[in-house]
Design a protein that fits this description.
33% of the residues lie in helices and 9% in strands. The chain contains seven helices and five strands; from the N terminus they run E-H-E-H-E-H-E-H-E-H-H-H. Residues 241-251 have low confidence and may be disordered.
């Protein structure tokens, strides 16, 4: 395999022999799963996809894990209004898609799949969590299902186009954020309790397509959130294979 010099190991850019050798060295595969849905008038429709692709690239480069081409579509949160550009698949479609793809990669030597997503909608999570393989392990990581605590002004509020998503995009892809169009939309406490990740509660009809306070977002906050997410994945999912600090040899 050619020396990629710390770059992500993107499967779509590799030849078959490179892929074979990469899986022989590290038999895992990162699969980013995005969505094509609104996150308010200020954020791009591919908000979730853009963040998980960046995470997949960074983790691939650091841990030398091959990363698969992105699955661009997921099961979107229900909405009462139409938002131009939105496109969703059904739960069984997403599950069948992965059930078709993973066996081929498993035959190529993959022993563990790391599925990265930012969509907490219950049907989306169920589709990813019920994928079947022959022998390989499947680990689904919802990168926003984390207690961000003091990193946020309103840590336990709903996450959809609000402070978290907007801050992450201001850090990862600031040129795609239109902060002048950001609109805060605060749910009453009775609704906040029901509008949690893993629920199927539809966005209120008067929502601009997001919930929360995007006006509280900042690029610096996004950097801290992004590094916190990445550190959690390092420690809890990939920690055993973390590379030694620069200048130190591995054990």
């Amino acid at each position: 395999m050619s020396d990629l010099g710390g770059r992500p190991l993107r499967l779509k850019e590799m030849g078959p022999e490179e892929a074979r050798l990469a899986f022989a060295v590290n038999p895992r595969l990162i699969i980013p799963v995005g969505t094509c849905e609104q996150h308010g008038p200020h954020l791009p429709i591919g908000c979730d996809t853009i963040v998980v692709e960046r995470l997949a690239d960074d983790l691939s480069a650091e841990f030398r894990i091959v990363r698969a081409p992105t699955i661009e579509y997921g099961v979107n949160d229900p909405t009462r209004l139409r938002f131009p550009g939105n496109a969703s698949v059904r739960r069984k479609t997403l599950r069948r898609w992965l059930n078709d793809l993973l066996p081929d990669w498993e035959k190529a030597g993959v022993e563990e799949f790391l599925v990265l997503t930012m969509n907490g909608d219950a049907p989306h999570q169920e589709a990813l969590g019920t994928v079947v393989t022959d022998r390989a392990r499947v680990r689904v990581v919802d990168v926003l299902a984390i207690d961000f605590g003091a990193l946020l002004d309103r840590a336990h509020g709903p996450i959809h186009g609000g402070e978290v998503d907007t801050s992450l995009l201001l850090y990862v892809a600031p040129h795609l954020v239109r902060m002048e169009e950001a609109q805060d939309f605060i749910l009453p406490e009775s609704a906040v309790r029901r509008y949690r990740r893993g629920s199927t509660m539809a966005l209120p009809a008067i929502s601009p397509g997001s919930v929360g306070q995007p006006t509280r977002a900042s690029a610096e906050k996004g950097r801290r959130l992004y590094e916190f997410i990445k550190d959690r994945i390092r420690e809890r999912v990939l920690g055993a294979d973390a590379p030694p600090p620069a200048g130190q040899a591995g054990a």
